[in-house]
Amino acid sequence: MLYGLLLFLLLPVRTAGSAESLFPPLEVRDDAGQTTRFEKPAQRIIALYGAFNEILLALDARDTLVARTVTDGKIPALASLPAIGTHMRPNMELIAAQHPDLILQLSGRDEARIQTEQLRALGFRVLCLELNSFKQMFAVTELLGRLTGREAEARNLTSAWRNRLESLKARYAKSKPVRVFYEVRYPNLLAAGTGGITDEIIRLAGGINVVTEPKKLVRFSEEALVTANPEAYVIQKGPMNPTPMKLEERPHYRDMRAVRDGRVLVVDEESFARPGPRAVEAVEQLGNWLHSQTGSF
Questions:
Q1: Separation CA 212–CA 224 (nearest Å)
Q2: What is the pLDDT of residue 108?
Q3: What are the b/e assignments for 174-205, b being 16+ CB within 10 Å?
């Protein structure tokens, strides 16, 4: 529920000589319905979901980050930060040792809600935010810009992202959409449905998802896949699909149109499934590949 972020700007407090004096106190109601008041910019942030970290890095707010999850250690700019556990299982003692003034958590899963409640019970300020689309990504970026005193940077950033996406939308507007299947995991085939940012990436790149169920992740049978017979097959590689098998080596896949035509693309999971800055690049990458003459990237 986007723009479940409701910002209530209060009267600014200004005192000469203080950076905090330019910060207008505000209240934020997050996507869990909790309201948090901020009297000054957040200066010690822990993000429990990687996309928040990537957005803060794009805002040039690296100095506000005091810790990271284990997974985000592979992001060079965050590697030197202390690890505080995983997104779904953060270590409370390690978090407390960093004295954060703001913790960011992704909404939508019961386990995350339980962690959020535990953190709030310990006295930490937590914003639980939904992040599942470009629209939500823009809203979260602008919110984080306000909370870190980088409001102008956030406006510039979201404006640039919107312009890039609008340009791509216009470029492919008159092209026939390419029918795409996006593999999240194999075996036990899992596909991207229409309920997440991956579907948006496909549509903005001039494609159409052959999986029409309105969920983020959809269990899909091989029989249904063969019947759908997509023109292009995209395989994500990452934590959910670490070593994808070549399609030619899978039973029943060889006669699929995408395989016969050589229109198979392996992509980075975090770029195509995470609503962060790299998702804009993902649209550009997929669009170039889908509409290239050879069908290969």
A1: 12
A2: 79
A3: eeeebbbbbbbbbeebbbbbbebbbbbbbbbb
Paired tokens of 254: 């060889």
CB 119 within 8 A of CB 126: yes
Q: What is the mean pLDDT of the chain?
A: 90
Provide mean pLDDT across the span 273-277: 94
First to last CA, the chain: 35
* pLDDT, position 180: 98
Beta bridge mates, 217: 192
Q: Express each pLDDT in 68-115 by its tens digit.
A: 999 999 999 999 999 999 888 899 999 999 999 999 999 977 777 888
- How far CA 35 is from CA of 40, 52, 123, in Å, comes to 16, 19, 14
Q: What is the pTM of this model?
A: 0.89
Q: Which domains are present in the chain?
A: 6-161 (3.40.50.1980), 173-290 (3.40.50.1980)
CA 78 to chain centre: 17
> Which stretches of the chain are assigned E, i.e. beta strand?
6-9, 26-29, 35-38, 45-47, 102-106, 126-129, 178-185, 190-192, 207-209, 217-219, 232-237, 264-268
Residue 165 CB neighbours (<10 A): 19
Least trusted range by pLDDT, from 82-91, 110-119, 165-174, 207-216: 110-119
Task: Give the per-residue pLDDT at 21.
Answer: 56
Euclidean distance between CA atoms 65 and 278, whole angstroms: 19
Instruction: Read off the amino acid at residue 28.
Output: V
Q: Which residue has the tokens 């004295």?
A: 99
